Records
---
Amino acid sequence: MRTNLAVLGALGVLLIAGCRPRVATVETPPRAVHATDASVRACWVESRGKLGFTASAILVHHPEQGSVLIDAGNSSNFDAEVQAYQGKTKRWFKTFPGALKPKLPLDTLLLRVGFDPGGLRAVLPTHAHLDHIGGILDLPPTPVWVSEAEAELIERGRDTVTEEVIPAHAEALTGQLEPLEFSGGPYEIFEQHADLFGDGSVVVVPIPGHTPGSVGVFVRLPDGRRVFHVGDAINSRDQLQRLRGRTPAMRRTDVDQAAAHRNVGRLRALSDQDPSLLILPAHERAAWKDVFGTPATSCPSGPADS
Ligand SMILES: [Zn+2]
């Protein structure tokens, strides 16, 4: 624990002082906006927060089409699952994602906020890294919606020990993966999108770079605000302000560093086009606080006033 705290502190220093290449501003295609009034209720379900970092999920309740969980945090069996690794990789896992191990398994956490995990329609991870899909192993079998490229990445992880996907996760998710179809054409600055419920309330876009099939998720809240959960496309919002690249710690895990680097510029362009859009990096706890205030203590499905 003490080691983890020390290393998280060091990560904080890297965030500030890490040698990061400057990001070029990008020419963006015209903005394609799909007007909609549809919205969903959304709660912050935090499996672990520490020193400004968080491992969290958004529990989304659609009034007619069920409940979906965006990201799932780490597995409660984290230590056993990383036993497949040795040396540097194992130390990396234990130090960084391992610092955000859940205090409670995800099913228990959902029950605590008044939601039966058996009632989930699907889990929608932003990508397949262990600190985003591990918590799915603590849930009853639930469909997992991922891009085609991420499904292939997970399937490869069954036969080969890769850093991208933990073998235990690849094994457990077999049969649960349901690839998303990005058939919706341009959306905002993105070339294609998947409109999850067909009403624009939750829209998924591909942001490959950190992993081959990373996605971002737009969520429209009942008060009219729009959130854009960008997974690990950036560490924190200040990277957009200062147009700095990603931290060395994050770059280490990028499958395509050049694409991941370009994504910072694309997100900055998006943010400039719509300053009211709330960009939500997966691990920046301050961003989650700005959107949701505090982690949910009550998030049952059903009408908001029930
Ligand atoms: Zn992550």
Note: Residues 129, 131-132, 232, 282-283 surround zinc ion (CB under 6 Å).
---
Amino acid sequence: MAEIPLVLGFDLGGTKMLAAVVGGDFSVRGRAKQKTGTERGNDAVFAGIVDTIEQAITNAGCGLSDIAGVGIACPGPIDMRAGVVLETPNLDLRDFALRDRLTKKLGVPVVLENDVNAGVYGEYVAGAGRGFRHIVGLFPGTGIGGGLILDGKLYRGARGGAGEIGHMVVQVDGRRCGCGRFGCLEAVASRSALAKDLVALAANGEAPIIREKAGTDFLAIKSGTIAKAMEAGEAAVTELVMRSARFLGIGMGNCVNVFDPELIILGGGMVERFGTQYLAVATESMRETGMKRMVEHVKVKAAELGDDAAVIGAAALLRESFARESSR
Ligand SMILES: [Zn+2]
């Protein structure tokens, strides 16, 4: 049997871009990372993408002719059929015809995918989700990203918008969300939501470590700082973190009721830094929210691939698009 050709996975993030040459077994053969510079907009970002891809190929010890295609994980809404990134506020991209531009530049097929979908897919093929076919992925961070693997396939919905679990309403009349509505899961359980509550604690003098490291700017409160405060025994901080875990669990329980998954994967900085108690509290809250006959069978696991999830997922989805074409 011929060896499965190498493909390239790419993660276009708001602060950094990551390219990886991925083998048939989903192992990373070489990678390159670049800060997304202060130069934003379509042309500057495109130049950075090409440069990072070329570096990753060099680092893998191969050439462009060894690469069968490029899968790109993109933030923000994309038009998958046209291969266009519609809008990303962080990178100042607008109607960016990334697929066709990159195909022309590199001479290989290119596919685009939403970054959270790519991350969940990466965990499905090569991480915490291996061996499962029904998975809900949730990534609490600045917002809460969600993705769905249903019956072994990435589920995108009618217009590519499926999986916006972060905007499931879990507290009627709760805090205002970035989307303009009230009480969405991400408005109560994201790191940003938690940081807004911690600012009040810091101002009250109940969270000295947070006050010292970040002051009262909620944008400066990172997961690592919050973890340090918990480790130092700041009880009020731990209480708020566990409150946010309980809200996350309500969202997870609702997902169980709708999708009957075997597994929920939780990933991102909060899950990595807040330890087993965070996961345990979220899981317990999920079991209280979901219907018993389904929820008692659901496993909850932390994501395993970290930053590699999206590049591996994008590479895997590109391979799938090849398989679809050859079976036509
Ligand atoms: Zn919302």
Note: The two ends are 21 Å apart (CA to CA).
